Predict the structure.
Amino acid sequence: MYRIPILRVEEFLLVSIQTDLDDALAVKLQDDLTTAIATHHARGVIIDISGLEIVDSFIGRMLADISTMARIQDCHAIVVGMQPAVAITLVELGLSLSGVQTALHIDQGMRFLRRFLAGRDEEASDERE
Amino acid sequence: MSGNEHLQLSISTEPDVVYVRQAVRKLASEIGFSLIDQTKLVTAASELARNALIYGGGGMATIEKKQQGTRTGVCLTIQDQGPGIENIEKALEDGYSTGSGLGLGLGGARRLSNEFEVKSAPGEGTTVSITRWL
Ligand SMILES: Nc1ncnc2c1ncn2[C@@H]1O[C@H](COP(=O)(O)OP(=O)(O)OP(=O)(O)O)[C@@H](O)[C@H]1O
Ligand SMILES: [Mg+2]
């Protein structure tokens, strides 16, 4: 069965969804990501959804679940590239995606993660002093 | 065209939900819906098709071009022979789910369409019809 590839970039994982996502594929991605975060001790995950033509209640729930799962694994997830039409539709659907961090595109997501993690490292070393 | 083009698709697996989305997208874009309107209609279709699969045990989608006077639209009817919905009012409320969902599908599909109708009774299956006008 087809799986969505998970790439390693530095200390991050990168997923770019470029296919129509059925529910089984979405669940598989969530499972694969959870495993990959643990295996690679990833500190950040970028999920690029610029190829997704819709986000419905099921896919929205998957994005929220991935964000929660990542947090529990001490990893920070960020969703990038949501098409404007998708964002507008989400609001009308009633999905708030609370707890899901978003950014415009992969570059911005990477920049955010680097800054965010550097800030956390600093805090940690302050506490040690 | 007199508004009689229609396409029927069966919904019995998860990939079928994706095929329904693709067929609705195709018709909506042929008719000239904007990207935002296409996205709204396809998202509503996805919710209804999934409900038919999960709660109705599978069903049938009918996608048709609708012509009413000078108006053109897309009408989607999703029908299943499942257990039906006991309390439609309740099912339409945001946050109400008898499954593991967010309870947004039905109410969301209503908000995303211009016309919305549910026919359902316990033991008699469920039929949901939505229309979005150009
Ligand atoms: N085709 C159907 N047959 C029987 N019951 C249905 C059908 N569609 C919806 N329902 C009932 O209505 C409830 C609400 O549906 P709705 O789509 O709003 O939420 P959900 O499917 O539970 O969650 P979500 O769609 O947010 O993932 C369902 O939990 C189910 O009990
Ligand atoms: Mg639903």
Residues A 57-58; B 47, 51-52, 55-56, 80, 82-85, 91, 96-99, 101-107, 126 surround adenosine-5'-triphosphate (ligand 1) (CB under 6 Å). The longest strand of chain B covers residues 59-68. The beta strands of chain B are 6-11, 59-68, 71-80, 115-120, 126-133. The helical segments of chain B are 14-31, 35-54, 88-92, 105-111.
